[in-house]
Amino acid sequence: MNPSAPLDRAAELARESRFLTLCRVGFLGRGILYILIAWLALQTGRTEDLTGALEYLGHGSGRILLIVIAAGLAAYGLWRLADAAFGIENPGPDGKALRKRSAAGFIGLIYLYLSYKAVRIILAGHAGTMNAQEQADTVLDLPGGAVVLGIAAAVLAVAGLNQFRKAGKCTFLYNLDYRAQAPLAKWLGRIGYAARGVIFLTIAYLIGKAALDGTSNEAGGMEQALDFFSGPVLWAVALGLALFGAFSIIEALFRRIHEPPPPEEIKQKVERKLT
After folding, report:
1. Would you say the pTM of this structure is higher than 0.70?
2. CA-to-CA dists, residue 150 to 8, 51, 99, 106, 207, angstroms
3. Is 189 exposed, middle or buried (0-12, 13-18, 19+ CB in 10 A)?
4. Largest CA distance in the chain
5. 3 state DSSP class of 182
C-alpha cells in the first residue's frame, strides 16, 4: 500500500467535511434570509425578496454574515447540482428519481445565482441585476415572449402546488435525523411550506397575468407577491415564511446530507459518458 494513502484519504475526508459543513451553512443562510424577509414585513411593512434581503445584510456588520452566507449558498448550490448529475440524494433511473434530480439541478442553479448576487453586493454594494418587471419586459420583447412567460407561470404554479403537497404529506421530514422529527419540526415545516406555496402561486398568477396582458407592469417575484396581500393575510403569510426559515435552521443542524462522489469517481463517470 502506498505509505501516503492514509494521509491522502484523511485530507480528502477533511475536504468533504468542510464542503458538507458549508452545505449546512447554506441551509442556515436560507433560514436567516426568510426570517429577515418576514421580520421586515411584520415590523416595518417593508417587502423584500431574497435579493433584497441579501442587500439589506450588505451594510455594516451584516457584511461579515453575508460573506458566510454567500459561501454557504454556493456550496448548497453545488451540492444540489451534484445530486442532479450523480443522484447522491435521489439515486436510480426511474422517472420519479429523474424528476427529483431535475428539480435539484434547477434549485442548484438558483442558489448559485443567489451566491453570485451576494458576492456582487459584497464587492459593489448592490446586486446589479434586473428586477422582476424588467426581466418580464425583456422576455416580452422576444418573439413568443408571452408564451415563455406563460410557461414560467405554469412551472411556478406546479412548484407552488408541490409545496402544498410537501406540507400535507410531511415529506420534508424524510431526510431529517430522527432526533429532529418532533412535532415542532413537523409543524414548522408544514406551515412554512404552505406559506411558500402561497407565495409561489401568487407569483405564478402575477406572471401569468403579465403574459395574458402582454405587459410587465404586474409581473413580480416574492416582493410583489407580498405586496399583493395586506393586513392579517400579509401577517399570516410573513409569519409562515418566518417559520419556514426556522425549519431551514433545523435542517442545517439535523438534515442527513449525503457526500458527493470523490473527484476520481466523478472523473470516471464523466469519461464513461463521453466515450
Report:
1. yes
2. 52, 23, 21, 18, 7
3. buried
4. 70
5. coil
